[in-house]
Amino acid sequence: TWGYQQKGMFGQTGTSLTLLALFSIASAWIGIPSNVNDFITSSNTLHQVNWKDIIKNSSIPELLVGSSKKEDPFLKNCSDRAGHMINHFLTDAVLGMVIQNSGKGLSDLGDFEACEKNKDQSYYLLFSIMFSAYNGVRIGLCLPIECPLRVMENLKPDIANLLSKFLHFKIYPQQLLMKDIRAENAELNAIQPGAVWFICITVLLIVVLISASILDYYSFLPTSGKPLHWQKIVGCCSGQRNIKGILSTENRIDAKLEILNGVRVLAIGWVVLGHSFVVTVFTGAYNVTSVLDELMHRYGIALIKGGTVSVDVFFFLGGILAALGLHKPFKNPSNRNVKVILFTYFHRYVRLFPILAFVILYSIYIQPILTSGPLHYESRASMVSCKNQWWYSLLYINNFVTDYLQFCCMWIWYLFIDMQLFIVLPFIIWLYTRNKLRGVLVVIGIFFSSVAVQIAICSYYKFTLSSAKITYTKDINSMTYNKPYCRLLPYFIGVLLFFLYEEGKDLQNGSQRVLKFNNFLYNSHLARYICYIMGFVIMYLVVVSFYYLDHYKDDWSLAFGVFHMISIRPLFAIGLTLIIYPVLIGRGKVLLAVLGHPIFNPLGKLTYGTLSLIHI
Predict the structure, then answer these.
(1) Helix H or strand E segment including 83
(2) CA torsion, points 482, 488, 490, 491, in degrees to nearest 10?
(3) d(CA 548, CA 564)
């Protein structure tokens, strides 16, 4: 092993020694700091490892030979193979393949395809040390076929002891996760009967789309006059009409509200940026530790860390647009009844259902058979969750009945909260159309109730701030992050903004205080500039606060932790309100020209289906 290292066969990181690729995974993490958080983010953990002394002073040879356990035939075969590799170190072909195709450091997954090409000699095993449900380190190992997963599972206690010895902190066998990727992928890639049905239905929909498009193209459908029912249905399926509708830049609402399209597109871009970073870094990037060590000290990383508030922009916009859509029918007193409210629920559910159902079915039946690789097994969790709990998602209750990590398509949690908040909103708008003051007071009451609930949860479970990220003890992340009572503040700030907008439009019956304020803001350049500056400063401080939380982790009290968690989301929405409101009263022409540009109209229509549901 020492000779191979001197010849440079292990790369600059020192890597796993020859026998590490078989069983001595412990040695790959020699010299790692005793602090787990520093361990995960350190980029120098595998440098300058003295492998010669490690082998000399450790029990690795005894572990490999396993003389005391040779009564197990599988272990005996593995032990014989290990002995042959040790005795024929420089000439054993399998050993060379093991060294070449195994990972050479933390997060190095090795060469999965090359290892799997020689199925009669080797197989690929993914080895991980988990420090929590969220954090861990892993390495890809190409092992001899004589040493199957069951043998490695039996060696967990020995491997854990070695790791504990060399890492200087206790590692338990249950922290070690091993996956035979060949077996895992074979099960996932099996075509299920449901996949056949899904493909048939998809093909049928495509045929209907093409047929309707042909009928529409050759003018078999009327473009004027009152069409028949079957013509309406066929027209709805016409690709030509739907594409025109998507790409249309025609304003269907107040021109001033077009600014929301630009905000929506920028917000989904921010969401995609954050998810792309997370997926890239934490699902197999070879130099993940050095990347994190470098990036976490850059000021610009705040844009990634603070990206969590990008979702709150959608809640904010959802509150505005949902209130706008509900206010129109409820302005008519004859529509203020239960029947209209129920129809509103039905209309929203039917509008969102098709694409959500399509994504869930795709995740269950199609996505597993289209991918492969060492991390392909991770799609099992989503597939199993969708298969067992699909109806939770279609009823929008998944965030109350299952843990976040067990969600079907966990990135769609936003839809659950948005639907749950929408269920409450028609009653508030109905009350507002009857008595404006009572409607506003109800929203303010909900606002403070949410604050009280969050204070209670954070105080009871001792909210803390840690170095690597914001950490919520007692799984408080699941208690707050995807719960409507903790995410409703930006939503109802949007509702309040709509109330102000509506009051300012009603010159006869609107609030005189609102009208006077709007008139003052409309005529005062200084007041508008103050709004813009304050809005940008508030949003900026919210985003960069995540950077400073990491770099000054020991300076924050429990009270500040509670304050930060509760305030960042509504503060960002308030900052956005200060920027948008002057546009809504007829000023801010430059902002409106940029964020309300017609190009954002078709892009904004795609944020729900094309980007929000399928970008991951």
Answers:
(1) helix 73-87
(2) 110
(3) 12
Q: What is the pTM of this model?
A: 0.80
3-state secondary structure 362-389: HHHHHHHHHCCCCCHHHHHHHHHHHHHH
> Which one has a higher pLDDT value, 283 or 592?
592
**What is 123-160 written as a DSSP string?**
EEEEEEEESSSS-EEEEEEEEETTS-HHHHHHTHHHHH
In the numeric block, the tokens 């072909």 are attached to 93
Could you tell me which of 240, 242, 187 has the C-alpha nearest to residue 217? 240
Burial 570-587 (b: 16+ CB within 10 A, else e): bbbbbbbbbbbbbbbbeb
Q: How far apart are CA 31 and CA 106, in angstroms?
A: 13
Pair of tokens at residue 137 = 């380190």
Mean pLDDT of the chain: 78
Task: Give the model confidence (pLDDT) of 106-141 as tens digits.
Answer: 678 888 888 888 888 888 988 888 876 656 778 888
Nearest Cα neighbor of 99 from 472, 533, 90 is 90
Given a contact cutoff of 8 angstroms between Cβ atoms, the answer to whether 386 and 363 are in contact is yes
Residue pair 140/109 in contact (Cβ under 8 Å)? The answer is: yes
* Joined tokens for residue 409: 């398509």
CB neighbour list of residue 460: distance below 8 Å, 6 or more residues apart? none
Picking from 341, 267, 263, 312, the residue whose alpha carbon sits closest to that of residue 488 is 312
